[in-house]
């Protein structure tokens, strides 16, 4: 029986995690819940699962992780505000099922330094797929990682054709049902850029050896190419409950959590190169990742401000990544990376992004 704390319990990942826990009462015990602001839904969840320990807000979630005895913490908080809970879980010796990619990307070497080998288990479908495929060989046998991208709602469009897209169009993702920030990040491919940085940090593979390929069907969730020419892929219908379940009980598999592919029906899977001209966010993310220090935090913070401005009608779609690039170019990193310097860099990035957006 694994005792589980779910942070971000009222969001998409959190609610699906509760479905997995509810369906496997002999395997998981829910001992703590935390949400950002939806107190009513949090209360309903606590009553349904008879959980006494709950928290509302990022600081309270961090304290919950410190105070409640648990085997695994699922961090499904959205945004870099989840960094404190990630560090708290690692320092407390809990297994960390990480859906909050921003905390690893922003925290970088601080998070890696706090983590024991194997303590972080990825919940993103792409990184879960890579982790599964990597079990087929040794690290020194890996040639490269291939991260798949659905291409979002604007796959195949040129940069010129993206100039006038609307927030409603950006939220019409063809495969996944996600929140506003993540769905918009999928449309700009900022999300894929963040995932490349995450893959580098999780699996210690050079940026030059991490490729992104567009796969609209979202069946192959990512691949690992080995030195002998073999490529190992993880394929399944798009259902986040599968990587969530692996995150909660890695490396054990939870029976019946997802449906298998139907091999009795004819189907086609396609793979296309990424158009860096129309979607420059991935190349920018690689440059940011190589620079390290506070640059990933600046990339992420500037994006969050730009996405909000886009949905509020203050910035065109192409302005999102353009704003990120200008903020990154203007950034001067601190001499030392600390939690405090990261926070300062994020504050600076948000202010700089707001200035650029207001002047646009």
Quick take:
The chain has 360 residues and is of the alpha/beta class. It has helices at residues 12-23, 39-49, 58-67, 83-91, 101-107, 109-114, 125-134, 167-170, 180-188, 190-203, 241-249, 281-291, 295-311, 317-330, 339-359, and strands at residues 2-7, 28-35, 54-56, 72-75, 95-98, 120-122, 142-149, 210-214, 220-226, 231-235, 272-273. The model has no long low-confidence stretch (mean pLDDT 95).
Secondary structure layout plus pairing:
Elements: E1 2-7, H1 12-23, E2 28-35, H2 39-49, E3 54-56, H3 58-67, E4 72-75, H4 83-91, E5 95-98, H5 101-107, H6 109-114, E6 120-122, H7 125-134, E7 142-149, H8 167-170, H9 180-188, H10 190-203, E8 210-214, E9 220-226, E10 231-235, H11 241-249, E11 272-273, H12 281-291, H13 295-311, H14 317-330, H15 339-359
Parallel strand pairs: 1-2, 1-4, 2-3, 4-5, 5-6, 7-8
Antiparallel strand pairs: 7-9, 8-11, 9-10
